[in-house]
Write a structure and sequence with these properties.
This protein is 41% helix and 18% strand. It is an alpha/beta fold. The protein has a 9-stranded mixed beta sheet with strand order 1-2-4-3-5-6-7-8-9. Helix 2 crosses helix 10, helix 3 (76-89) crosses helix 4 (102-113) and helix 5 packs antiparallel against helix 6. The radius of gyration is 17 Å and the shape is globular. The two termini are 32 Å apart.
Length: 283
């Protein structure tokens, strides 16, 4: 099954196959493109490094962009150390770190544990705490023994419901269904879910607030308003970029505006600019 969105992603992936980085038995995939100030992109549960292909293609002529795919073992604390080690391997001293969903939690952990390596933190469509997460599906399941079809079936049900109410995003849903169906292998899928279920609480954030940003969407089906507010309260961002629509994947559903947000954060000139930073910026 394909559509224009999947075809564009697949063409990008063919041009930029994942490179490998291994640390302590954890095998990461990554894409390293462009030159300039460094931007590290960390996906959520349903995405490989190439899920950010539209931002990479738009900005690689002005930025060095590193996007990652998770390994099949480890958790938030280990992964934070791995990504700092990856920056070392790539000879990147500091980077703007943007994480979405699971990646946003990991990005916050990196910024708290290694603030000297983070130029700016962008916590996107994410959560502030894992307390109580083990009471919610699918995290309430035994993620080591639960049927992978049950886990994937839960994702499929949620995506199908989204497609029914957001018919303009059916191509996006089809792309994500492919991730669920096996483009993200079973072991990696389980590791991503377990990383949050068993994740550590976030250490205090000591970075200056002028270097912290949030991105959220009003219609995000996975991150409710109270959680979005809690992320803002914890980070106290210099600017909170709020999409009025875009769901859990505004970097795909609202790609041009999302790229403009990155331009603003990275101090780049680009088309479709967002308003100046300060408080809430509604998009």
């Amino acid at each position: 099954m394909t559509n224009p969105l999947i075809a564009a992603r697949d063409a990008f992936a063919a041009r930029h196959p994942e490179q490998r980085f291994e640390r302590e038995g954890r095998d990461w995939g990554y894409i390293d493109c462009g030159e300039g100030p460094a931007l590290l992109l960390i996906p959520g549960t349903l995405g490989r490094a190439d899920i950010f292909w539209q931002q990479i293609e738009a900005l690689q002529d002005r930025l060095r962009i590193v996007a990652v795919s998770y390994p099949a073992k480890g958790g938030v604390a280990e992964w934070a150390g791995d990504l700092v080690a990856l920056l070392d391997t790539l000879e990147i001293d500091k980077a703007v770190v943007l994480g979405s969903s699971l990646g946003g939690y990991l990005a916050q952990y990196i910024a708290a544990e290694a603030p000297a390596r983070v130029t700016a933190l962008v916590a996107a469509n994410t959560l502030h705490s894992v307390k109580g997460l083990d009471q919610r599906m699918p995290y309430a399941l035994d993620l080591d023994t639960a049927s992978i079809e049950d886990l994937r079936g839960g994702f499929r049900a949620g995506l199908s419901a989204w497609a029914d109410t957001h018919t303009d995003q059916r191509d996006l849903v089809a792309l994500l269904m492919g991730e669920v169906a096996g483009r993200i292998p079973e072991a990696e899928m389980r590791a991503r879910l377990k990383a949050l279920k068993h994740g550590p609480e976030l250490p205090p954030l000591t970075m200056p607030h002028r270097a912290c940003f949030t991105i959220e969407a009003d219609d995000d089906p996975l991150i409710p308003a109270e959680m979005r507010n809690a992320v803002r309260e914890r980070i106290s961002p210099a600017a909170a970029y709020r999409f009025t629509s875009g769901g859990h994947f505004p970097y795909i559903a609202r790609r041009e505006r999302y790229t403009s947000v990155l331009c603003r954060i990275m101090d780049l000139q680009c088309g479709n600019p967002v308003p100046p930073d300060g408080g809430e910026v509604v998009l």
